[in-house]
Amino acid sequence: MLIIIKGLLLICRLSLVLAAVMSVYKNAKFYPIDIHFMLANISSVNTSNACVCACIMDFMCITVYYNGYAQNCVLFSAELRQGQLNLATTDTNSIVMSFKNKSIQASTVFSTMNKTVYAIWNTTAGSNSLASYSGYEQGNFYPSETPSSVFDNIGNSSYSSYGVCNYSTWDLSCGTNTGFYITFKNAPYLLRAFRICAGHYRASRDPLTITIEGSNLAGAALTLGTSWTLIYNGSTGLTTDPGRSMCGELRTTGNSLWFSSYRLLVTAKRSVDTCVEYSEVNFLA
Ligand SMILES: [Ca+2]
C-alpha cells in the first residue's frame, strides 16, 4: 500500500518542503539482514505517526517498525530489500513503513583539506600502525593510487595497496590488513555512518569487511595501537558489487563517541587479486 505523506509533515513541523512516498504494511515486522542497519529503538511512542516523524527527522532513516501495544518505534537505514518483511499474525497492532524516495540528506562534514592521509599496512585493530610507502613491492601502495585518493571525490582515482603481496603476486590475502589513518579538520566528529566506493579496475579488489577505530590523541601517538578505540567491525557495504567506481550501501556504525582521528583497516576483500582497491570513503556525521 502506498500513501503520500505530505500531511504528516505538518505533524512533524518540518520547515523543509518534501513530498515523499511511503509503503505501509500492517500486521508486519521487519528484520534487517544486518543489525548495523538499526538506527534507534525508541520507547513510549504513542502513535505510528509519531514513529514516522522520528524517521523523517533522522536523515539516515528509510524504514520504521512500530508496535502499538508496546509503543515501541524502531528506525532503520535499510530499504525493505535489505531485510525480511514478515507477517505478524498474532500482533495486529504492528506496522512497517518504508520510504520510497526519501533521499539521505547526509552531509560529508569530514573535511580533509590540508591534512595528510597516512598509508599503513600489516596492521590490525588494536595493533601499532606500520607505515606504507609508494612502490610495487610488499608493503607498498601503487604510486599513482595513493591513500588521499579516497577523499578527492573522483571515482576514477583509487587507493591500491598490496599488503603482504606485490604487483605480481595474486592471492586472497593481498591488500588485507592495509588502510589509512587521518586527522580531520575542525574535529572532533561523531562518525554515525560511512559509505565506501569501489575501485575503478576490478571487482576482485573490492574490500568486503573493515574495522574503523577512533582516537583523540595526536602526532606520533597515532602510530600506537593503544591510542585507538574500535568503533566498527563489519561489512563495507560492497557485498553486492555496485559496479566500478560506484558506491556501496550506506553503513551505520552505532557509535556514540566523538573522535578527531580515524583509522580504517581492510580485513577481507572479494576475491584473488594483487591488492585491495577502493575509490572513495565518505565519513558522515
Ligand atoms: Ca577517489
Task: Write structural notes for this entry.
Residues 1-19 form the signal peptide. Keywords: Signal. This protein has two helices and 22 strands. With 285 residues, it is mostly beta strands. Helix content is 6%, strand content 36%. The chain has two domains: 2-99, Hepatocyte Growth Factor, CATH 3.50.4; 118-284, Galactose-binding domain-like (Jelly Rolls, Sandwich), CATH 2.60.120.260. The chain is elongated. It has helices at 6-12, 48-57, and strands spanning 2-4, 21-26, 28-32, 38-42, 63-67, 72-76, 83-87, 94-99, 118-121, 130-131, 133-134, 140-141, 159-161, 179-183, 189-190, 193-198, 207-215, 229-235, 251-252, 258-259, 261-269, 276-284. The strands form six sheets. Strands 1-2-8-5-6-4 form a six-stranded antiparallel β-sheet, with helices on one face. Helix 1 crosses helix 2 (48-57). Bound molecules: calcium ion.
Write the layout of secondary structure elements.
Blueprint: E1 2-4, H1 6-12, E2 21-26, E3 28-32, E4 38-42, H2 48-57, E5 63-67, E6 72-76, E7 83-87, E8 94-99, E9 118-121, E10 130-131, E11 133-134, E12 140-141, E13 159-161, E14 179-183, E15 189-190, E16 193-198, E17 207-215, E18 229-235, E19 251-252, E20 258-259, E21 261-269, E22 276-284
Parallel strand pairs: 11-12
Antiparallel strand pairs: 1-2, 2-8, 3-7, 4-6, 5-6, 5-8, 9-10, 9-14, 13-22, 14-21, 15-20, 16-19, 16-22, 17-18, 17-21
Helix pairs in contact: 1-2
The chain binds calcium ion.
Keywords: Signal
Signal peptide: 1-19
